[in-house]
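Dear colleagues,

As part of the handover before I leave the project, I'm documenting each prediction I ran so the next person doesn't have to rerun anything. This entry is a single chain, and its sequence is reproduced below.
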Amino acid sequence: MKFFAHLFSTLFHPLLMITYGVLFALNFTMLQFISPTEKILLLGGTFFFSAFLPALVIAIMIWLKWISDYEVDKREERPLPYIVSIISYVATLWFLVIMWAPYWLLGLVGGAIASLLVGMSVNMYWKISAHGIGVGGFAGCAFAITPLLISSPLPLFAGILIISGLVCTSRLILKRHTLGQVLCGFLLGFIFSNIGIFLSYYIINKN
């Protein structure tokens, strides 16, 4: 059980969720019709800015002993990884703007930035689940862009909810979080992902 818990925690690490969101969009929205080169650039750039760079910086922090490990159990060490992630997501947003990404993708990243800011504030006092925030944001993205999906949404939602359940359960099996911490993280990511995307709809329609 612990092996699979570690596996799901790694495969669906919070830093990878923006990349998964873009991958989802490239396969199930009109973005699937853009050229292969554009897909590679969009996905590769998103992965570089939102996952690779922050992972590298956090690894350097561990090497310098600024933080103990990737789990960051010590309260006083929690702000640094969050700050790194927020900066990397801002860079991702900038990259997507340059790439002329759809407004709702910008809203997704904006919502992720907001959820990280709230999560960082909460983590000063209570260890909310970053994995919960990540999968919650991914699930919220899928829900919010339902009108844009060109496939039946029900199988997609079912798969995403199963993945979310497996990831959240993995955090409980590994005893990294309580049920309340996981649920609050999921709700935080889900809500802010929806807010970011729906605000992007409103801004575009208003203009």
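The longest helix spans residues 36-63. Helices lie at 2-11, 17-28, 36-63, 79-98, 103-123, 130-144, 153-173, 179-206.

All the best with the project,
I.
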